[in-house]
Amino acid sequence: MLSPAFPELQSPYSLTPAQVAQFRRDGFIKLKQVLSPALLADYGREITNQVGRLSRETRPLAERTAYGKAFLQVMNLWTKSEVVREFCFSRRLARLAAELMGVRGVRLYHDQALYKEPGGGLTPMHVDQYYWPLSSEQTCTVWVPLQATPMELGPLSFRAGSHRFKFGRDLAISEDSEAKLQDAFKVSNYALVEEPFDLGEVSYHYGWTFHRAGPNQSNAPRAVMTVIYMDADMRVVPPENKHQEVDLATWLPGLKPGDLAASPLNPVVYEAGPGK
Ligand SMILES: O=C(O)CCC(=O)C(=O)O
Q1: What single string gives the DSSP state of each residue in 78-129?
Q2: Which ligand 1 atom is the nearest neighbour of the CA of 173?
Q3: What's the pTM?
Q4: How far apart are the CA of 214 and the centre of ligand 1, in A?
Q5: Beta carbon of 114 within 6 Å of any ligand 1 atom
Q6: 14-265 has which fold?
Q7: pLDDT band for position 16 (50/70/90)?
Q8: What are the extents of the domains in the chain?
Q9: For the chain, what is the mean pLDDT?
Q10: Counting atoms of ligand 1 from 1, which one is nearest the CA of 123?
Q11: Rounded Cα–Cα distance for residues 135 and 266 (Å)
Q12: What Rg do the C-alpha atoms of the chain give, in angstroms?
């Protein structure tokens, strides 16, 4: 049942050709006023409840790895809550993903809530597609902060144009990826774009775009919901590392290399067509 209270969740958000070109040049884009404060408050309440219910993290921050300090991570909330499902199946968000990438339709890869706790550490620089056994680069994530996100909360930042940078694509999220990539980017031309997010602003980044986030230096959590999209025609490829083996079993259950990436967990959430 789609919520009639927020038609904006389904209606199109107009992109200009210049914005599409910018996304393909920079590998990311930030878009303002995509979702209203009222919608974010409503859905955010349910997402936060689910994170509280489902997060299995009990260790104090000091006892965690860099990855563990970066955020509480709860995945595929859409399968746990009808309300979150409505959010993750947003045609507005999915259509933006398809139009930015220039594909006919998109499927869900998975969703994840990323809550950076007060005092939580930085998110080390990394690329997402290192983790995914997928056949093309037509993947992207929408990063939706559930509150305004000033610098002290740790907004997502990007290396502009770095989806074409080949170094560091084999690095897992860790202190090592942060250190090696800091060095690599000192001698490259990929500018760091590190800015606050207004309430209602979201970003899209390709699976191969390098990104990070600063620590949460405030007393409040940095609540973020994300949805990962892939081209509706995406195929599974043989896993190249142990993370991809886990991802194949977890997010593409029952599929094998060569298959269309279309398990029951990967519904088409937007498809262009007459009247769509
Ligand atoms: O929210 C964060 O700190 C990191 C997010 C991220 O890496 C992603 O959504 O791909």
Answers
A1: GGT-HHHHHHHT-HHHHHHHHHHHT-SEEEEEEEEEEEB-TT---EEEE-SG
A2: 7
A3: 0.97
A4: 11
A5: yes
A6: Jelly Rolls (2.60.120)
A7: very high
A8: 14-265
A9: 96
A10: 3
A11: 15
A12: 18
